[in-house]
Design a protein that fits this description.
The protein is an alpha+beta fold. It contains 13 helices and 19 strands. About 45% of the residues are buried.
Length: about 400
Amino acid sequence: MDLRPATAPLAALLLLSAPAAHAQSPAKPFDATTAWTSFETLLRERYGYFDRPGIDGNAILSNFAEQARRAPDDKVFIDTLQLVAHNFADPHFVVGPLDLEDWAVIPTASDLFGSYDGTAFRIEEVRADSDALAKGLKPGMVVRALDGRSPRAAVEIITGRPFATLAPTQIDFAFNMALAGIRRRPRTLEVTNGHRRRSVALAATTDQAKRVQEGPLLSVERQGTLGILRIHNSLGDQALIAQFSQALAGLADTTTLLIDLRNTPSGGNTSVARGILGHFVDHERPYQVHVIPYESRVLGPPRRFAEYVAPFGARYGGKVYVAGGRWTGSMGEGLMIGFDAIGATTVGSDLGDLLGALSNETIDGSAARIDLGTEQLFTVDGLPREAYRPRLYLPRAERDGSHDPVLAAIGR
């Protein structure tokens, strides 16, 4: 059963809308020095992940400061800020407006996840129902070229820095951005599998993001006494609350439920999350913890608070599993730690690592629009959300045409 959307998630709409040109606003004349100072202040005061393992925020800003201050126009300035964002290796940190020459937003517009092991650039995961899966790309394949460039060269273009100066975290992030390609542009990958080398033509990853946006918010499946609710990147759509309640009511007679979050790479809000979690508690319970860095950095006293979920709608009484993977991001990750906190069994691989609670910011002197995490997020036990792993951990969690590792892990 497919439950059709009333509206599309905000994040998907922003990603797929017609690209805006890098144009300076009449109300905000471009001034490179003012803009850089404003941007630097924003990051130092409000960005929740300015420093973390493998990421030195001061060094990144120092590396690009002069280039930004000398930008002749706002387009060049915004392009420089995008290099800064890529160096922070955080999918939640996006500088726009985007044009047709910019890289696709990951993980929303991506169908491959890869990593660099110090020797080779390898595919680690292939997204379910993607063109990459249909074209036969598989985990373990080595990527030799992307649109005619070596992976090393692509990483250097995306970061604006020599490969030898980059931390492993930055290399992996840039490699995954290269795998997703330029917005709305088809890609060509050259890969080897053993001794065999082949060239693979792939659709633009924004095609998949658009397909998900135009599809149902939620789909429902039964396998005997198991009910499956698959959420399709709709955690920012308030209509999902009612549709989830309706679908869950139709599965009330099942003994086991799988909530599949493997296709929730972007967007979302806590009201939708609480509308889902509320069906699985019988009293108020904490499900995630927020820390506001600005409070301690600028004002002095730290601010830390727990967010709670209250009972909502009919309560499901069976066993609950919740699945996540590389395309579980942002509020999808919030639901993973939330369900863990209330006693459900989480299952899957490492998640998308979209850092913190997202804010949309502007700066003085530029038309740049900046998305970044201004609230750090933790499990109720104090673990950073980005360090969380599902309880039933799997090296790979994506379905392919014949096998679903999540179903296998839960004995189905």
